[in-house]
């Protein structure tokens, strides 16, 4: 199975909270894909962060009624799970080489080819956002739009490298212990929802902690090692011409990374939404803050929120149907205002003004 060079799928007739699980064999191992919705609709691909799957990374957004009506009405959802992160996954053999981000990117291509998908909309969180961005850079004709949550684009900083080293050592020597989970929860959520001495942790953190208990530590370690070895793709961001919407919480450990990425993208095709009082996992912590921007983003592709009487759409995701006005960042939100943001410019350090969505 690990040596296979073909993309052969074994359909598992398994209900996954209403979705069907497919196991897709690739040259770099097997990938679990959970499919929701009508396969005649345009495809939306998701990819989660380290140690998460679609239930622990995107469930909050898809359980939000307004978001569910918007996304499930317009898309067939393909949740790609990192190797060994699916429910009930066994430990990956230590002798199997750790995949590179290039290998994981190739897996995404195999998944698209197996389902005979053409151009897709992509939604990724942190590590998953990096992989989908890398995929969009390499296969520009296969990606129509990017929705990125607390994305990465640079190689790990010393701070992140030390943090990942700590988590890796904990996973290797102690498994998914309490301290390992605390480090991962800090990666995902703001301090407010993680709880303090005076306030208990929120329900979403408790649910995520339980889901982390189900992860095989070696599988999480392998994915973390792959992301920790990622190259800097900053210079390649200028090649992206698909419309891109970035969400990041102002309490996220990757807030500065998201700002940096936003500065490098073509302003005609991208916008940044900073969510106040939120950590990295905006989809779980404050999914309602994503709704307005998501709706305006999808309007640019001719997609819409259904009314009670509307039937199922057969709208395409052709960027050629987008009017010029909808390609500007201002079209992606109701209220935008200049926010003074100190971001290093390409020619040196300076204070620059950039349009950000200030209504969240």
* Structural classification: alpha/beta
The poorly predicted ranges are 1-16, 309-360
Q: Architecture, according to CATH?
A: 3-Layer(aba) Sandwich
Computed over alpha carbons, the radius of gyration is 19 Å
- Principal-axes geometry comes out as globular
Portion of residues in helices? Answer: 25-40%
- How much is the average pLDDT? 83
> For the largest beta sheet, what order do the strands appear in spatially?
1-2-3-5-4-6-7-8-9
Can you count the beta strands?
Answer: 11
Keywords: Membrane, Transmembrane, Transmembrane helix
Family: Belongs to the NDRG family.
Pfam families: Ndr
What are the SSEs and their pairings?
Layout (H helix, E strand, L loop, with lengths): L8 E8 L2 E8 L2 E8 L6 E5 L6 H4 L1 H5 L1 H10 L1 E6 L19 H14 L5 E6 L1 H12 L4 E7 L8 H17 L3 H11 L2 H4 L8 H11 L3 H12 L14 E7 L5 H10 L5 E6 L6 H4 L5 H9 L36 E7 L8 E7 L3
Parallel strand pairs: 4-5, 4-6, 6-7, 7-8, 8-9
Antiparallel strand pairs: 1-2, 2-3, 3-5, 10-11
Helix pairs in contact: 4-5, 6-7, 6-10
What keywords describe this structure?
Rossmann fold; 360 residues; two-stranded antiparallel ribbon; disordered N terminus; alpha/beta; 11 strands; globular; 34% helix
Task: Describe the fold and architecture.
The protein has a single domain, classed as Alpha/Beta hydrolase fold, catalytic domain (Rossmann fold, 3-Layer(aba) Sandwich), CATH 3.40.50. Helices cover 34% and strands 21% of the residues. The protein has 13 helices and eleven strands. It has helices at residues 54-57, 59-63, 65-74, 101-114, 127-138, 158-174, 178-188, 191-194, 203-213, 217-228, 255-264, 282-285, 291-299; strands at 9-16, 19-26, 29-36, 43-47, 76-81, 120-125, 143-149, 243-249, 270-275, 336-342, 351-357. It has a nine-stranded mixed beta sheet, sandwiched between helices. Strands 10-11 form a two-stranded antiparallel ribbon. Strand 8, helix 11 and strand 9 (270-275) form a beta-alpha-beta unit.
